[in-house]
């Protein structure tokens, strides 16, 4: 089975997920989008209103920033894979609850197992702390963290601020842009692959 076929099969299963209360009010499960053979996967927090409406990750205001940043490093959206820690929208865009993150984690783990990206870019603290708990984004953003996860082996996590935080804070925006600009080198660097 190709990676694409495996993702389609997984997507069909997640559509029926009722592991947490978020299933009650969702418009769509937002599984993920992009290239199943991507070397790099971007992981956000949870779908917002627009994403919930369309069933596609990062199509609202955060997505526009992400698209702009990808264009700035000459990478197309179709070349990367985009997903979230939580696949369903929390009401009023509230932060995901620990139990929602916990219930959704196996889906993300499966996606990573299938895609086998070289680099995992976490966007924001929720995505970062799902992989590396008790870590402050202010201390580790823009640095590769090597971690081991059962069944997935060694992963290279590249923590970035969330695009929504970059949108509202000028200093965060600068850090976000500086960190983002490191991505092409990371993808080229054999040591990081
Ligand atoms: N914010 C996220 O973290 N993910 C999305 O898909 C959209 C906004």
Folded structure, characterized:
This protein is of the alpha/beta class and 193 residues long. The chain has a single domain (3-7, 25-188), classed as Uracil-DNA glycosylase-like domain (Uracil-DNA Glycosylase, subunit E), CATH 3.40.470. 42% of the residues lie in helices and 15% in strands. The protein contains nine helices and six strands. The protein has a six-stranded mixed sheet. The radius of gyration is 15 Å and the shape is globular. The mean pLDDT is 96. The structure holds uracil. The site of uracil has 11 residues, from loops.
Features:
Uracil-DNA Glycosylase, subunit E, 6-stranded mixed beta sheet, 6 strands, binds uracil, 193 residues, 15% strand, alpha/beta
Task: Give the helix/strand layout.
Elements (H helix, E strand, L loop, with lengths): L2 H12 L18 E2 L5 E5 L4 H6 L6 H12 L8 E4 L13 H18 L3 E5 L1 H7 L5 H4 L4 E5 L3 E8 L2 H6 L1 H11 L2 H6 L5
Parallel strand pairs: 2-3, 2-4, 4-6
Antiparallel strand pairs: 1-3, 5-6
Which topology does CATH recognise? Uracil-DNA Glycosylase, subunit E
Secondary-structure element order, N to C: HEEHHEHEHHEEHHH
The value of Rg in angstroms is: 15 Å
Query: What is the terminal-to-terminal distance?
Result: 24 Å
CATH class: Alpha Beta
Q: Strand share of the residues?
A: 15-25%
Q: Using DSSP, what is the number of strands? A: 6
Poorly predicted spans: none
């Amino acid at each position: 089975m190709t990676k694409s076929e495996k993702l389609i099969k997984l997507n069909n299963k997640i559509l029926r997920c009722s592991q947490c209360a978020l299933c009650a009010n969702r418009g769509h499960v937002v599984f993920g989008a992009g290239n199943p053979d991507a070397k790099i996967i971007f992981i956000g927090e949870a779908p917002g209103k627009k994403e919930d409406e369309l069933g596609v990750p990062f199509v609202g205001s955060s997505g526009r920033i992400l698209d702009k940043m990808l264009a700035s490093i000459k990478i197309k959206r179709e070349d990367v894979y985009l997903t979230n820690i939580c696949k369903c929208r929390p009401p009023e865009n509230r932060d995901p609850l620990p139990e929602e993150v916990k219930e959704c984690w196996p889906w993300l783990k499966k996606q990573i197992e299938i895609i086998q990206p070289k680099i995992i870019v976490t966007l924001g603290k929720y995505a970062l702390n799902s992989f590396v708990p008790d870590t402050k984004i202010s201390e580790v953003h823009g640095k590769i963290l090597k971690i081991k996860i059962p069944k997935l082996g060694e992963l290279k996590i590249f923590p970035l601020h969330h695009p929504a935080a970059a949108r509202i804070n000028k200093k965060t925006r600068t850090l976000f842009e500086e960190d983002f600009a490191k991505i092409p080198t990371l993808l080229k660097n054999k040591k990081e692959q």
